[in-house]
Design goal:
Arrestin-like N-terminal domain-containing protein; Arrestin-like_C
Length: about 375
């Protein structure tokens, strides 16, 4: 069996024609029959496949039944077809993640697949695939990772309170001058209280921007957008929830591939053509893996005099340029490509504080080239 694809994109490699969403993929499936076959079906499928390690998922599937019946003598059969290209994740090949669009032709009978052949084609992002480019940039595994982080913080607070209670219990006989007072209980109580104070400070400083912990940040989460090559400027407002001295504030632009994989993956899963991409199907919690394919310091400048007092507003302006060859942000099951500005606050003797501002890098929409040099708005 041979599959020929007719396409209108000039100057492209015929082995990998290039399309954008809403294009029409027109071609012909050519089947050469060498011997009679009965109860035969010819099925053509268009879909995308994402692969990350041993995890594979697919979507955007459309199936056409080209033929069903008997081939009673050797012959060459031609089956024209037409597919509409839907919005979806664009073709991408990175360090951890590969996304391909394929045409898959199968000749099968009631009991088995007699012949199968795939032909890849390239899908370029056009700006219409909003649910994939904006999408949900936090798959289930990333939500699970955040939940695990919050659980660790809760356990740290429980440990802090227990240490504080133990310290008070050990100090009480010495303070009240009652029986049981001893220098060892005094030292143990002081050590427990000091350790509780250290854990409280560490947990407080490394928490999220909750109203009473760490720093507040404005805006907390916004839908920032930019295009490759854009010069970007937006405002960050930080509010310390305690009196402190800030040494410096820095920022960096990061591009990240992130995938989840099952920690306990059966050996045969690596060979399965349609391995499950659902975290619920795993025997253990999924593990998130990240690869930073881009990282660059960006300019961040104070817009007014900085005030270290509690709840005082400190305003900064971030300026940067999106790389002209930046891959677009997108999400597909079990994987995503994301961009973010990481703001790093170096705070005196306190542990450092960091926060990410998600950036959606999207293709030009509606042909508006260079519509705005400040694509991100605060």
């Amino acid at each position: 069996m041979r599959i020929d694809l007719d396409h209108d994109a000039p100057g492209t490699d015929a082995a990998a024609p290039v399309y954008t969403p809403e294009d029409k993929l027109v071609g012909t499936a050519i089947i050469t029959v060498l011997e009679p076959q009965r109860d035969v079906r010819v099925v053509l499928t268009r879909k995308w496949i994402s692969q990350a390690h041993h995890t594979q998922s697919s979507g955007g599937e459309d199936v056409i039944l080209l033929f069903e019946g008997d081939w009673l003598e050797p012959n060459t059969h031609r089956f024209p077809f037409i597919f509409h290209i839907p919005p979806g994740p664009y073709s991408y090949h990175g360090h951890l993640l590969d996304v391909d669009w394929v045409l898959e032709a199968r000749v099968e009978n009631a009991s088995e697949a007699l012949l199968c052949e795939q032909r890849k084609f390239i899908l370029e992002a056009s700006g219409n695939e909003r649910e994939f480019i904006r999408g949900d940039l936090m798959p289930e595994a990333l939500r699970a990772a955040d939940l695990k982080k919050h659980s660790r913080r809760a356990l740290q607070w429980v440990a802090t309170m227990l240490l504080l209670l133990v310290g008070i219990a050990l100090l009480y006989p010495n303070v009240a001058a009652i029986s049981g007072a001893h220098w060892s209980t005094l030292l143990g109580g002081l050590a427990a209280i000091i350790l509780a104070a250290y854990l409280a400070r560490r947990t407080l400083r490394r928490g999220d921007s909750a109203p009473n912990t760490g720093w507040s940040i404005l805006p907390v989460r916004s839908d920032y957008e930019a295009e490759p090559g854009d010069s970007v400027s937006f405002v960050v407002e930080l509010k310390p929830n305690f009196k402190t001295s800030t040494r410096r504030v820095t920022a960096s632009l990061r591009g990240v591939e992130q995938i989840w994989k099952n920690r306990k993956m059966p050996a045969e899963a690596s060979d399965a053509p349609h391995a499950s991409a659902s975290p619920e199907a795993a025997n253990d919690a999924p593990q998130v893996e990240r690869h930073h394919f881009f990282e660059e310091p960006v300019k961040i400048e104070p817009m007014d005099a900085q005030d270290p007092e509690k709840h005082s507003k400190n305003t900064y302006r971030v300026r940067f340029r999106v790389p002209s060859d930046a891959p677009y942000s997108f999400y597909c099951p079990s994987a995503s490509v994301t961009w973010a500005i990481e703001v790093h606050v170096d705070v005196g003797s306190w542990p450092d504080w960091r926060r990410d501002f998600p950036i959606i890098v999207r293709p030009n929409i509606d042909g508006e080239k260079g519509a705005s040099p400040t694509a991100l708005r605060s």
